[in-house]
Amino acid sequence: MAREVAGKWIVTNAVEIDYEDGTEVFRADMFARPWACLEFKEDGSGSIFDGEGNVDAFTYVATDESLVLKYTQGNDTTTYRIQELTESRLCVQEEHLEAYDGVVHKELIEINLHK
Q1: Which of 46, 75, 98, 111 could form a disulfide with 14 if both were Cys (CB 3.0 to 4.6 A apart)?
Q2: CATH number of the domain bearing residue 52
Q3: Superkingdom of this entry's organism (predicted)?
Q4: Is 6 within 8 Å of 40 (Cβ atoms)?
């Protein structure tokens, strides 16, 4: 799977959607700078370029269903579910769930990228 993901992927758009008990309560485009991209190398390493000159290095593991990024600085790990992967398009989602005050809150972030 690393071979299919390998390459430079430009962020097309990103959106955050929040739900409470399954009902959408918030939706917003996340600001992506021109030329923000992720680069995946076949050796399992990669970099995030934020479009402002900042770079975050990571290692990754790709399966048919997910893409797990472990950032080199700190101990942060992000798991994305792969929604679509073609030669020129990658769509991933990150989901956070928590319940408080009897309400289930879900935050969904979807990122669309292209080569």
Answers
A1: 111
A2: 2.40.128.280
A3: Bacteria
A4: yes
